Amino acid sequence: MPRPSVPTRRADILNASRAVFSARGFAGTRMEDVAAAAGLSKAALYLQFDSKEALFKALVIEVIEATLPSAAPADLADIAASVLLERFIATMADRMADPEVAFVPQVIIGEGMNFPDLARFYHDNVVARGLAVVDAIIRHGTERGEFNCDDPAMASRSVVGALLLTAVWRMVFEPVGAAPTDPAAMAHSHARIVLDGLLVRKEPA
User: Fold this and answer.
1) Cβ(133)–Cβ(72) under 8 Å?
2) Under 8 Å CB-to-CB from 6, ≥6 apart: which residues?
3) Residue/partner pairs of 186-190 with CB below 8 Å, 24 or more apart
4) Of 44, 87, 128, 146, which is the most exposed, with the fewest CB atoms less than 10 Å away?
5) DSSP summary character for residue 176
6) CA-CA-CA-CA torsion for 180, 182, 187, 190, nearest 10 degrees?
């Protein structure tokens, strides 16, 4: 039987590091831990990533690049804003409840004060991009006469804030006894509440 090849590809390292960061947090993770999990020497790992910070940032980028395209189209075209917003909320709630994604905001919220560069990176590359997508959807709905919203930026924070709470709830509170939450049910409820506040009400004839 041939021996399995040594996993030197970037994807293999990121998969191994995801498990280690999820289990140990950022401060508790060492590059040698990731190297061992990936079946590499520490020197081989450093050829791919020059620091633990670079490795974590690569994971953040991988998460957002894999998530945003499925959450909302690049061209909103003539799609109803309510459909777009429901799709965004449902997709993001599902993805952020996934342990392979949820550990990232968990690490940032739990350790961001001690690692402000990572917190800023997460804000700029994940939170800000998510807010921009929601802001664009709300403005799209307003331009179509579908939504009534005086402050899309604040409304966007309301949408994204609940999604972040879902991730934190699953990763932080459920393991210590909090009632489990169903991401799909939460997404449906959240979308209904948000749209109830945004949709233009037509006066009865």
Assistant:
1) yes
2) 39, 40
3) 186/93, 186/162, 187/89, 187/90, 187/92, 187/93, 187/94, 188/90, 190/89, 190/93, 190/159, 190/162, 190/163
4) 128
5) G
6) -40
Is 160 buried (19+), middle (13-18) or exposed (0-12) by CB count in 10 A?
buried
The string over 51-84, giving b where at least 16 C-beta atoms fall within 10 Å of a residue's C-beta and e elsewhere, is ebeebbbbbbebbbeebbeebbeeebeeeebbeb
Q: What is the largest CA-CA distance in the chain?
A: 77
Structure tokens at 123: 């804000």
Q: Output the pLDDT for position 8.
A: 52
pLDDT surpasses 60 at 43 = yes
pLDDT over 70 percentage in the chain: 95
> How would residue 7 be classed by pLDDT, with cut points 50, 70 and 90?
very low
User: How do residues 65-108 score in pLDDT, each as one tens digit?
Assistant: 888 888 999 899 899 999 999 999 999 999 888 888 888 888 99
